[in-house]
Write a structure and sequence with these properties.
Layout (H helix, E strand, L loop, with lengths): L2 E5 L1 H5 L3 H4 L11 E5 L5 E6 L9 H16 L4 E6 L19 H19 L5 E5 L3 E2 L1 H8 L2 E4 L4 E3 L11 H10 L2 H10 L3 E2 H7 L4 E2 L3 H13 L6 H21 L1 H12 L2 H18 L1
Parallel strand pairs: 1-2, 3-4, 4-5, 5-7, 6-8, 7-10
Antiparallel strand pairs: 2-3, 8-9
Bound molecules: ligand LRBWVUCK.
């Protein structure tokens, strides 16, 4: 597993150290990094897959493991952020879907489902410090959290229809959990990418922050707002509110993988993905 976990001393003493500390891998291997603040118990989970934090199978598996570790060790909050200065996450790595190996394609989609189930259903309070662009799968991760703070002049949204792709039901439920239904419907059908200011206005993000440090502090302030609540009552309330969305995917998990595989393998979808990749590469030149 390619992630590192750094734990502060005070937290360690109240945690099962044996399960908590995973061996550090060489710096160049790390795709996520977890740091736990020893005073607050808040965990910062940083995605680190340059250049754009494209969500490939390895990053997704790493994210899943890190979320599970944070949960197991009863951290008091999870902040998801990015090591990049300009990109939170470019969403799914299109290379995983273009001319795919069929077995890996199934594993890839299953890994995405697992990350979503772990993050959306997390018992630990969650927040995203969105320090860069956050299209598609990047937006899904941020919207799965309970609170979002974004830096100015970036974009966020579920742009799937612009790529000729239909977002699955659980992407849409995640959006609907954050946005009023009518706005969610318009945004999803248009595949609209919102600027930071627009995202704040419609409620897709909760606050803006001038710097990443400020964004992290605002996320921590959100966690501090639960200081007077019972953590179990808090979690059970969240669980009930999100229950139907989670159950819907759990009931159809295998079918959902099959639908995805069938969809991605359609010649018209492959053609569209190929053209989109080409346009991204041309833009980079
Ligand atoms: C049934 C299926 C449902 C689910 C379907 C989809 C969900 C998804 O998440 S699909 C992915 C959607 N993502 C996007 O549309 C974002 C595309 N990327 C961008 O808009 C820009 O790259 C971005 C704004 C994120 C960053 O811009 P820049 O900083 O200017 O970087 P570059 O554009 O130059 O990109 C650098 C490098 O990365 C490659 N890249 C970017 N995004 C992806 C991606 N999602 N997958 C794979 N590769 C990606 C880009 O081609 C460049 O590559 P090189 O030219 O080889 O350097």
């Amino acid at each position: 597993m390619q992630s590192a976990l750094i734990v502060g001393k005070k937290i360690c003493s109240s945690l099962l150290l044996r399960n908590w500390v995973r061996p550090l891998s060489a710096a160049s291997d790390k795709l996520t990094n977890v740091e736990v603040n020893d005073k607050t118990g808040f965990a910062k989970l940083t995605m680190n897959r340059p250049p754009v934090n494209g969500l490939n199978l390895d990053l997704l598996r790493d994210l899943h493991q890190s979320i599970q570790d944070i949960e197991k060790n009863k951290c008091r909050g999870l902040i998801l952020t990015s090591a990049s200065n300009t990109i939170f996450s470019a969403g799914l790595d299109i290379m995983e879907m273009y001319k795919p190996d069929q077995e890996r394609l199934k594993q890839f989609w299953t890994a995405l489902q697992d990350v979503w189930l772990a993050l959306y259903g997390s018992a630990v309070p969650t927040a995203a410090a969105i320090n860069g662009h956050s299209p598609a799968g990047g937006c899904l991760l941020a919207a799965s959290c309970e609170y979002r703070v974004m830096l100015p002049k970036y974009t966020i949204g579920l742009n799937e229809t612009q790529l000729g792709i239909v977002a699955p039901k659980w992407f849409m439920s995640t959006f609907r959990n954050v946005l009023p239904r009518r706005i969610a419907e318009q945004a999803l059908t248009q595949g609209k990418m919102f600027t930071s200011d627009e995202a704040l206005k419609i409620g897709l993000v909760d606050e803006l922050a001038a710097t990443k440090e400020e964004a992290l502090l605002k996320c921590e302030k959100f966690f501090a707002s639960f200081a007077k609540t019972d953590p179990i009552a808090r979690y059970l309330t969240k669980k009930q509110l999100r229950h139907n969305d989670i159950k819907e995917l759990l009931d159809e998990k295998v079918q959902d993988v099959e639908n995805f595989v069938l969809f991605v393998n359609q010649p018209s979808v492959q053609k569209g993905l190929g053209l989109y990749l080409e346009s991204l590469k041309k833009k980079a030149k």
